From TrEMBL:
GO terms for molecular function: nitrogenase activity. GO terms for biological process: protein-containing complex assembly. Keywords: Nitrogen fixation, Oxidoreductase. It holds the Pfam family Oxidored_nitro. Residues 39-436 form the Nitrogenase/oxidoreductase component domain. This is Nitrogenase iron-molybdenum cofactor biosynthesis protein NifE. This protein may play a role in the biosynthesis of the prosthetic group of nitrogenase (FeMo cofactor). It comes from Desulfomicrobium baculatum (strain DSM 4028 / VKM B-1378 / X) (Desulfovibrio baculatus). Pathway: Cofactor biosynthesis; Fe-Mo cofactor biosynthesis.
Length: 462
């Protein structure tokens, strides 16, 4: 390992083929390491935020609400209430005397103004420290207004983003089972863990419609409170972002007996496999569903594959580094890049488990670096070491790529182009091609013999 890698961090890195697999993960971030992770509160917000007809109120300082405003970028086919960020704006006197009165007054005013289908109230670090009884306030306001008012116990200091996912699932589960399931088809699914950043949920729902499968609830992209209330009537839960919504799927299986399957809508193979899984599940209810699914996939691939072959001519042999939030993306992206003739040489995630990383190691090439909970210095070092052509990440990783003279592809919350489904694979390939083949890299001397444009530290700090 390079000297820029802290000794305490080495156990959270693995180089495939150089040593037996052993990797520490799912642990608190190392103090002072400038982790790319977010807090518990942020994790809960990214899951619940896309529920478009709910009120979202942050009980805490204004900075917490500002930090997470429009954090998912999730688009809605109707209501836009989720795009408004409300805060109780706790001040010093509230810390001393408590913020319950301010919270109750805020809830009553906002519910009166916006008439939401439900309200989510997020606790922050300050609330956890001063001990406001959010549960009691929410229960009282709910009884008076007649709408569900749901506390989200997401104090940031409790852990990391993964604990925030769990807090969000527990809050949502209070809604499940409170709606009427009349009229739901026996061939029905809930779409869990897709956030409709650029309309992807609509693409996937259209595929299911062509197969004859009803999508009951989007959880949570383009989500609706009433759909979540009746989602226990669906026959199957499809879980894409397993870190964010797997706990909800498990709770629904335990209480309502609804099975779940892990799926991915990213890339050619995983999109097709996900549709085939659904077809297999409902084959006893519709003998024609497998044939309809095969026809759907064949039709989509007949258009897609010639386009990918054209882009692959330029991309063959190029190297990729990626750092994603949920590790499920990494599995699909590795397969997607192989369709483009590209090789992933660095892969990491914020919230992966040991099982996730073992699976990554099994499908990755020898020499690939796997890293958990990376920081900017580490990512910059690995990008330089592996001499990559394009870096796939989120908004926090973008400056690292550009300062090192590397192409970048945003695969996180801020993107505006759909990257899921078969059309999404083509959009992704076009974006990668445009980034890697841009003529601007002719002016970057980072690969010239004996020359380096900046040191690792300079690359990160500017």
């Amino acid at each position: 390992m390079n000297k820029t890698i802290l000794e305490e961090r080495k156990s959270q890195m693995h180089r495939i083929g150089e040593e037996p697999f052993a990797m520490a993960c799912d642990r608190p971030s190392l103090a002072g390491a400038v982790s790319q992770r977010a807090c518990v509160f942020c994790g809960s917000r990214v899951v619940l935020y896309p529920i478009a007809d709910a009120l979202h109120l942050v009980h805490g300082p204004i900075g917490c609400a500002t930090y997470t405003w429009d954090i998912r970028g999730a688009i809605s086919s109707g209501p836009q209430l989720h795009r408004l960020s409300f805060s109780t704006d706790l001040q010093e006197m509230d810390v001393i005397f408590g913020g319950e009165k301010k919270l109750e007054a805020s809830l009553r005013e906002l519910i009166s103004l916006h008439s939401p289908k439900a309200a989510f109230v997020y606790s922050t670090c300050i609330v956890g420290l001063i001990g406001d009884d959010m549960e009691a306030v929410c229960r009282r306001v709910s009884a008076d207004t007649g709408i569900p008012v749901l506390p989200v116990m997401s104090e940031g200091f409790k852990g990391n983003k993964r604990e925030g996912y769990a807090a969000a699932c527990k809050a949502m589960f209070r809604l499940v089972g409170t709606g009427d399931t009349t009229g739901i088809s026996p061939m029905s699914v809930n779409i869990l863990g897709d956030f409709n950043l650029a309309g992807e949920t609509w693409i996937v729902r259209e595929y299911f419609k062509r197969m004859g499968v009803e999508a009951v609830a989007n959880i949570t992209g383009d989500g609706r409170v009433d759909d979540i209330r009746r989602c226990h009537g669906a026959a199957l839960n499809l879980v894409q972002c397993s870190g964010a919504t797997m706990e909800l799927a498990k709770m629904m299986e335990e209480k309502y007996g609804i099975p779940y399957q892990r799926v991915s809508y990213l890339g050619v193979e995983d999109m097709a496999d996900s549709l085939y899984k659904v077809a297999d599940f409902f084959a006893d209810k519709d003998p024609d569903i497998k044939a309809k699914t095969v026809a759907l996939v064949r039709e989509e691939l007949s258009v897609l594959m010639p386009k990918l072959a054209e882009l692959r001519r330029d991309l063959e042999g190029k190297k990729v580094a990626m750092y994603v939030g949920g590790s499920f993306k990494a599995f699909s992206l590795i397969k997607a890049f192989r369709h483009l003739g590209m090789r992933v040489v660095v892969v990491g995630s914020q919230t992966g488990t040991e099982e996730d990383y073992k699976e990554l190691a099994a499908i990755s090439d020898p020499g690939t670096i796997i890293v958990d909970d990376a920081n900017p210095l580490e990512l910059a070092q690995f990008i330089k070491e592996k001499d990559v052509d394009v870096f796939v990440g989120g908004v926090k990783e973008r400056p690292i790529a550009y300062k090192l003279g590397v192409g970048f592809c945003d695969h996180n919350h801020e993107r505006k182009i759909a990257l899921e489904g078969f059309i999404g694979m083509y959009n992704f390939a076009k974006e990668i091609h445009a980034s890697v083949m841009s003529p601007v890299w002719k002016f970057m001397p980072r690969r010239a013999a004996g020359r380096v444009t900046c040191t690792t530290k300079e690359a990160v700090n500017g």
